[in-house]
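Q: Could you write out the predicted structure for this multi-component system? I'm mainly interested in how the pieces pack against one another.
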Amino acid sequence: MDIYLTPLKFYNQLLLQNLVAEFSKRFSCKINVVDLKVNIDDFFSIDRQQYYSTQILAEVLNLTDHLNGKVLLLTDVDLFVPALTFIFGEAQLNGKHAIVSVCRLHEEFYSGISDEKLLLERTIKEALHELGHNYGLRHCLDWDCVMHSSNGIEEVDIKGNSYCTTCSKAIEGYRW
Amino acid sequence: MNRKNKILIVDDEKIVRESLYHWFDEENYYVETAEDGEIALSKYSKEKFDLLLVDMKMPGMSGLDLLIKIKAIDKDALIILITAYSSVPTAITALKNGAYDYVTKPVDPDELAHIVKNALQQKSLKIENTMLKENLEEVIKPDNLIGESFQMKKIYELVHSVAKTDTTVLIRGESGTGKELIAKAIHINSNRKYSPIITVNCGALAETLLESELFGHEKGSFTGAQFKRKGKFEMADGGTIFLDEIGSVSLRMQIELLRVLESKQFNRVGGNDLIKSDFRIITATNEPLEELVKAGKFREDLYYRLNVFTIVIPPLRERRNDIPLLVDFFIGKFSTVMNKKKKKVSKEASDFLMDYDWRGNVRELENAVERAMVVGKTDTIEVDDLPFHVSKNVFELDEGDNSLSSMEKKYIQKILNECSWNISKAAQILGIDRATLYNKISKYDLRKDEY
């Protein structure tokens, strides 16, 4: 099974390339980049100025039958689910689809200082995290594990950048 | 046996119920939902839940009515109300009627996690993790803490004895010996293991940045600070803070540190609220703190505050029999990362690695193996694959100790090593009798593990 990285309103090509390179090192399966041509404007909340991630995932669900593997959507836009102020990403537990927003992974969002290296590190963590949910993993209590929950950017930075020994067993073709 | 905490979500809006359901499900809770107060009441009468999240405004039975009815059945029921901003005054009424707390919708995930964790902890319900296994007999080591030498075994004993306490630990050792790994070992063997260990490299940060890093900042406290940011001490709440290179902290920051260590309270930069944090502190240094104290560069009171329990990690050259284990570990690690076949090590390369002085300790060895894995063309690591600077003669003169006795000690060690501690054979090569060799071994405190 392959992994399909799918940019949706995502314009940072260098970040995408670096993510593909990093995933290629970590997974034995093929890492593809696919363009799904999805219009997500309908899922924008004017009140919240954010996009409703669950609806985006539902929209993409029927467009990926031809893809044999996990589909990870990447977006620059800010995401929400109704109960929460924001989310870094959402995934179908034991499913095929996940989405990660890099909007709140930018350091300038917090301190006004740009840090591309940190952005890549955070994106890798959140992408691996949501992918982990696709492989059936729930949150792990090991802070060294990328499956630890992160409810704020500080926690994204603290947690490890790879799966712990136990969690990695659930991930098909994971090398590290 | 592990037991998941049970949560009941009561909200008439399906999308809110679903998003909260998924959030708690991923957090390893057992979750059920109810779309109104009647269903919630019915579920609660059949099955006890550890926590209820109840929407304040629902058609039919309101959240407040449900709260009163559930409290009548079970006065200890733990209920958090979800309210729109406009109904906060009603939520305050609910608090008076026994609600644990309230959150406004939409809720900040960090705030929700914090309130739920505190609520369950108040009920003395510990969050169990079925994924983490614990062996109480042995020290759990971080995966990459390698060493079976008697020196390392002694360190594991120290880790074991200090881990369960909240004692402040000072880890000393040369650069590259793995001080952070020992700090991690202490943390994951402590009762604080489910909270994070936060590492701060004090030497790598400018003084102004260090302050913001350690204590956090409030929104708008400086240009570009668009959001509040928690500091390292705040993030370490419930866990451990590891301050590496503590000797490089400025005198001004030392005063701040001393204050925080004593009170466990601080303000975020630009903030007035006093933040409390319950953390254990571990520090590390490769500098002679006592000399820094004498020179007036390190506060004596802070030194005594930190130097409560000391663990000294020996340099790699003093625990040479860990080298093969470490080499094997690093070959395994890099073969996985580089997706290459696991290499063997030639006899010559192996001898070289054993004899080398390793001034950069384990980190230098790791780099040497990584380099050899990259440049080596065959399935075996040869001497030529090792970094150029490794190929120095191990018996070249030390910068520090060039005394005859030091050289004699090293030479006897080398010969004993080569003879696998066959005393007769070593004595023969050294041209001395066995009794003299035993005397030398005793004089220099040589041990089999030490070669």
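A: Regarding packing and overall arrangement: The radius of gyration of chain B is 29 Å.
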